[in-house]
Each structure stands twice: as structure tokens, then as C-alpha cells.
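step 3/5: co-fold with beta-D-glucopyranose
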Amino acid sequence: MHRLQGKVAIVTGSGSGIGQGIAKRLGSEGAKVLINYRGSEAGADDTRRFIESHGGEGVVLKADVTKMDDIQNLVDTAWSRFGSADILVNNAGLEIRSDFWDTKVEDYDRQMAVNLRGPYFLAQAFVRRLRDAKKPGRIVNISSVHEDMAFPGFTAYCCSKGGLRMMMHNLTVELGPLGITINNIAPGAIVTPINKTLLEDKPKLDALLAKIPLGRLGTTDDVAGMVAYLASDEASYVTGATFLIDGGLMRDYHEQ
Ligand code: BGC
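step 4/5: write C-alpha cells
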């Protein structure tokens, strides 16, 4: 199936985890992919090889979404290498655990810079080029169930994801007239490096699994399929929504 033929996608943080799964999926559905990484160079190369082995095209670019020059370079490189940038997936993210009363200002700033300021200004650079070229586009933010749901010990992370939710709501209105859609995906517990500590702690993992109605963690493929749909023509009237991919975690409640 090649429903993204002729499209160009930028996927931040696609050297590992959910971003890697997304880039592989978009690439194998026909999109040319700008594979971005900051630390996982080997993973980014693996993403590129996967796309090439499925008959697609990928370019790997190191960039830090907390740096304005790097952000501009991501968009400029997509246009210079592939002649466009039609799909932006704001995926790069990080979380730092700390009780509220112990949160360090540098940890707060880092989570905001990667999870919210990066997507904000990357979307801005992405939109400016499309607006000038009078082309439509798609933005998909990889948010979290925690754009809505409390996560004690991760207040700064939740603030960044809550911000991403409001950014999406606002841009739905501001970008609609330009033909640009924007949606959030809210993954629950997905097997990726961000969850390393949890995955290695059996009692904690079992407690989490007991809260997931479908009884398993999610996979990066569970998320990638939704991104491919939102980037495709089938989703041309879909904008302003958050899509939960969490096995029911968000809706869980037990009285016992
Ligand atoms: C976090 C994970 C967490 C999951 C479900 C995600 O946003 O990154 O650490 O397990 O939400 O709570």
C-alpha cells in the first residue's frame, strides 16, 4: 500500500522508540522521510536502511529541536533534498521523574524545551514554507495520555504535554484556512526506551498492566498506523482531535 506516495515527512526523534516506528511506517507507505535524531545515530541509520529495503527514500539529519538553527535546518533540508515538506511529526520527547517539591529548574526547562518549544517552532518553520508555497500540510504531535491525565512525579512532563494539547487546539483554528490539519496522538504505555526503568521493575509493571483494560503494553506499530492514517488523504477532514492509543488506560477505574 502506497497511500503516501509523493509526500515528504519530517519525523523528529526517529532514531529510536515511537519515532522510529513512525518513520519506518511512513517510509514504507511511500513518503520520503527526513529521519531526525539527536543521540541515536545508529538507530537513525537503521530507520533509513529499513525504508530503503522497502523501496523508499530516507535522509538522516542530526538536529536538536531545542535549537532554532537546527529547527530551520530540518525544514530547509527537507525542501532542498526532497522539494517539499508536507507532513510534520513532532515526536521527539523526554521525561524526567521528580517529586514536585524537588523539581530542578533545569529539568523543568529541558522538558519544556524538547516537548513543547521544539514542536512549536518547528511547526512554525514548517508552516511558513507551506504558506509561501501555497501548499496544504499535516501536523501530527506525539503527545501522551498525560496531556490530560495526572501522572504524579512527572508534573513538568504533564505541563509540557498539556501545552501541546492547547497548541494543537489553537493551531486547528489558525492553520485550517491554510489547508493544514493538526492532530495529537496520545499514547499510553508503549514499549520504548522512555519506559526503560518501568519495564525493568516487575512489581511496577504488573501494577500498570492491571490498569490497562486490554492487558498489554502498546507497541510502536500501534502508534505508527494512526500517524500514517492522519497523514493520508483519507484523513483530509480530520483536524483538532486527540487520538488515544492506550489500550483503555485513560478510561480505567476500579472500585475495590
Ligand atoms: C510516559 C510513560 C508512561 C505512559 C503511561 C507516557 O506518556 O512517557 O512513561 O508509562 O505515559 O503512563
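step 5/5: annotate
The radius of gyration is 18 Å.
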